[in-house]
Amino acid sequence: MIAEAGHYALVLALALALIQSVVPPIGARLHDAALMNVARSTALAQLLFVGASFVALVTLHVTSDFSVANVYENSHSMKPLIYKITGVWGNHEGSMLLWVSILALFGGLVAAFGNNLPLSLRAHVLAVQAWIASAFYLFILMTSNPFLRIVNPPIEGRDLNPVLQDIGLAVHPPMLYLGYVGFSISFSFAIAALIEGRIDAAWARWVRPWTLVAWIFLTLGIAMGSYWAYYELGWGGWWFWDPVENASLMPWLAGTALLHSALVMEKRNALKVWTILLSILTFSLSLLGTFLVRSGVITSVHAFANDPTRGVFILLILCLFIGGSLSLFAGRATSLKQGGLFAPISREGALVLNNLLLTVACAVVLFGTLYPLAMEVLADFKMSVGAPFYNLSFVPLFVLLLLAVPFGPLLAWKRGDLLGVTQRLLTAGVAGLVVVAIVWAWTRGGSALAPLAIGLGVFVIGGALTDLSERTGLFRLPFATTLHRARGLPRSAWGSVFAHAGLGVALIGIVCETTWNSEYIATMRPNDVAQVAGYELKLDGLLERQGPNYREMIAQFNVSRDGSALSVMTPSKRSFTTRGSSTTEAALLTRGASQLYISLGDVTADGAIAVRIYHKPLVLLIWWGPVLMALGGMLSLSDRRLRVGAPKPARAKQRLQPAE
Amino acid sequence: MRRMMAAIVALALLAVPAAHAVQPDEIMSDPAKEVRARDLSRELRCMVCQNQSIDDSDAPLARDLRLLVRERIAAGDSNAQVLDFLVARYGEFVLLKPRFERQTLLLWLLAPLLLTGGGIALWLQLRRRSRNGADVPGPPLTPDEKARLAALMSDDATSR
Fold first, then answer.
1. Between chains, do A391 and B20 touch, taking CB under 8 Å as contact?
2. Mind listing the pLDDT tens digit for each residue in B113-134?
3. Residue A239 forms contact with B (CB below 8 Å)
């Protein structure tokens, strides 16, 4: 009954989306407010029905109703409750339902909080949202229905892939989808602007908060996924240039470029056409990501589905939306007027450079991901593109970008003074060089590049702080004035300081982890002691334990440094009986920003166990960086000018001065 | 040019991830040779895995390949010879860093081409626009939009 209700709610949502696709644009053409307002009600009703459908699937999973194929294939009655819930999106059908739920959520938010939008713009935006939604509802209902029943229901389910039975699954996919799907809003705004044939600074002001929300979630989602891989896959790697990681990185790169170009458009009314194009590209890359992951075109840990009909269906959606939007763009873009002149050396110029580098970086990732596929199909040439390629092609682009980052915020709009900015960045530059010298001397003759890269990170952080001290007059004005100014600084200014500093922090973490990672690989017996990076790890013993739906073998290590005991670490290996597979649960010991990492291998015939112990210096900075970036994004979002809702005080003022 | 390439190669070395599935019994007795084996392993694909290098993978094939690499190194092969040996056996598919050749030309040249092309295009565009002077103003605003704009701008002013 619940399954059928969920299925029916989804069909109703499709019907609502179809109405929302057609009626509001007609209303806009006829200048009929009532017809345009249909979009608002249908968007909210759609949210209600998709939400009901999603809740139905969650209920089916929680109650372990194995007469539903999706539950049977991905759940088990003994599975802990949290994984019963997260297992809903740990499979193809459920994750697509999550995708459309989030799409409906964003549509509902625009409908609920878009009161300050011009009526026709809102109608068009919601109509475009409904086009996307209709396509994906059809996709789910025709090829990936999560509510299908089994004729002879089995007693027990087949359990969820053990690797996915982790708290990471509760956070990573929803965050990532909030990011991916969030970019649909800027896409819809761009299409609406192209349909209406007009776009102005106010448009950019409406789009920026939505883009920012999507970007924050995507940043956190990618970082979370990376940390999950780091501790779950058992060898301490945190980025693999896997096609699916690339699929999430591409929208992030394009979205970051979009955030910056929308800034130019909002402040200076320039880069309009480019901003529209970026909005289209960012969401197109999100769709491409969905296609790559869902079609199974590229084999990867994330591809649950290998069904060709699904792949073809998503490919059709992809062609329709990307092709359609780009044709619309080609036809209409020239009618959009460019405004706002600027010299090459200016804040605008710096942001253009940012966009150029981010777009090229994005293109490199896109090519690296699709090139082997294209060569295999077109030239029958089987090849691979992996981490070493990206290190050679992607990293130099980011080094250039990071060198330029501190200059951007310090340059003036329209016409900047590069020499003056360089002088103001002198302190940050000197700080960077001092750090290079110290690290170089300290590591004595190791790789010359690691100190340089750390110096670059310090320069980026120093640049962000310079921006802050310039704006507040630190060291130039009395401290009280500085404090007062800091308080009066727009939140978005603080946001950019945090986000840019986050880049530097992440870079330092990446360099330290990759350069000074120490490892110890050996077979150990009880009472053996391993020495890694000044820590002594004594293997106390091995023990077996029964978990809810697995058996695990735990190794207990006593960790000490200079003779004083620090902690006990318990890495384990779990074997899941239902699927007959096992996972390694690494043990982590955090010391400041560094971590000790132990993961277990196989037990040999004579009772010894293979262990891998790593000391990863400052590894946590890799994820603190993105967290800082997201924090910057949130600060910027909380800026009064950008708040998503209607600016109420402004309304009051509007009433006081009607004759304008 | 060669120096620049060297610099780029060196920069890239920074970002080589440390991720390992090497078993204790595989490690070579000569540390220098072991380092070479590890570096090579990171550039070789485990063909039955999902986008993993043989250095990362726990698959039996990856182990066989790791042992093969070490065997060739022990036999006195240079790094290039080891790679040639593996490509002869398994094809270009085994290389995670594709070789610079006819089929991969576009892949390798994409970033420099786009960067210079984009830079030149931007430069020309900027010059053309600054020569043409200011643009034509857009369509006039409707009274409703003027009121909205005023509301937005006054809101902006108070927050500064």
1. no
2. 999 999 998 888 877 776 665 4
3. yes
Cα distances (Å, whole numbers) of residue A447 to A246, A440, A626: 28, 9, 26
Structure tokens at A203: 């448009």
What pLDDT score was predicted for residue A654? 42
Contacts of A497 (CB under 8 A, 6+ apart): A409, A464, A465, A467, A468, A632
Count, in order, helices (H) and strands (E) of chain B: 6, 0
pLDDT at residue B4 tops 70: no
Its domain, for residue B126, covers 102-130
pLDDT digit string (tens) for A471-519?
888 877 888 888 888 888 888 889 999 999 999 999 999 999 988 888 8
CB contact under 8 Å between A386 and B51, yes or no, is yes
What kind of fold does domain A1-165 have according to CATH?
Four Helix Bundle (Hemerythrin (Met), subunit A) (1.20.120)
Closest chain A residue to the Cα of B123, Cα to Cα? A344
Q: Tokens representing A107? A: 């549509």
Distance of CA B97 to the CA centre of its chain: 9
Q: Do the chains contact at B122 and A352, CB–CB below 8 Å?
A: yes
Contact with chain A for residue B113, Cβ under 8 A = no
Mean pLDDT, chain B, integer: 76
Q: Which residues of chain A register pLDDT less than 70?
A: 295-308, 337-339, 445-446, 640-660
Q: Which of A132, A173, A442 is nearest to A314 (CA)?
A: A132
User: What is the rounded radius of gyration, in angstroms, for the C-alpha atoms of chain B?
Assistant: 28
Based on the fold, state whether residues B13 and B87 are members of the same structural domain.
yes
CATH of the domain at B38: 1.10.8.640
**What pTM was computed for the model?**
0.88
**What pLDDT is stored for residue B6 in this prediction?**
42
B50 within some domain? yes
Interface test with B, best of A163, A266, A272, A392 (most B CBs within 10 A): A392
> Do the chains contact at B110 and A393, CB–CB below 8 Å?
yes
Q: Contact, A430 vs A415, CB < 8 A?
A: no
Residues 448-467 of A with CB under 8 A from B: 448-450, 453
Residue B36 has pLDDT above 50, yes or no: yes
Q: Name which of A338, A343, A660 is nearest B135 (Cβ-Cβ).
A: A338
- Average pLDDT of the residues in B84-110: 89
Question: What ipTM does this complex have?
Answer: 0.80
Q: Please indicate whether, in this complex, the C-beta atoms of A235 and B21 are within 8 angstroms of each other.
A: yes
- Mark which residues 57-76 of B lie under 8 Å from A by CB: none
- Please state, in angstroms and rounded to a whole number, the distance separating the CA atoms of residues A628 and A500: 9
Rounded Cα gap, residues A312 and A291, in angstroms: 9
pLDDT at A303: 46
How far apart are alpha carbons A254 and A361 in whole angstroms? 9
Determine, for residues A391 and B13 on separate chains, whether the beta-carbon distance falls below 8 Å. yes
Q: Are A310 and A143 in contact (CB under 8 A)?
A: yes
